[in-house]
Please model this.
Amino acid sequence: MIRAAVSRLLRMEEQMSDSLTPREEVSLDLTRDEVHMLVYGLKDWSGPTDCTESLSRAFGFDGLDDFLAAGDRIANAISRREPLTVRDWTRALLATEVGWVSRVVGYSDEWDSIHAWTDEKSLQVLRSLQRKVPYDRSSVDR
Model:
């Protein structure tokens, strides 16, 4: 019964994301921790770890300069709890996922010491974001 309910919820979330266009603006009701994770998931790329040109393109940006400028704009908008386009939400979530989890290109070993969060708390917040944030694969599949 619980699995069926979760499956229905996931299908509804996919349909919600599928029905939105990349340029459509969406406001999200995020917790303080979710805001923190997304903001620093973007800003830490110019801090404890360095993004590359190709990685910034994989995140859906036009290049490293665009990632640093647009990433800062997106992070500031998230901090102010402003609506963002589905495209910007997608790029923020992907950059956060890779930065937090990846040891190869991210800062996975440093996240807990920088942000004073355990892996358990971080994963809980990330999973919550993955359920809330609308996404559009075409925004990063270029």
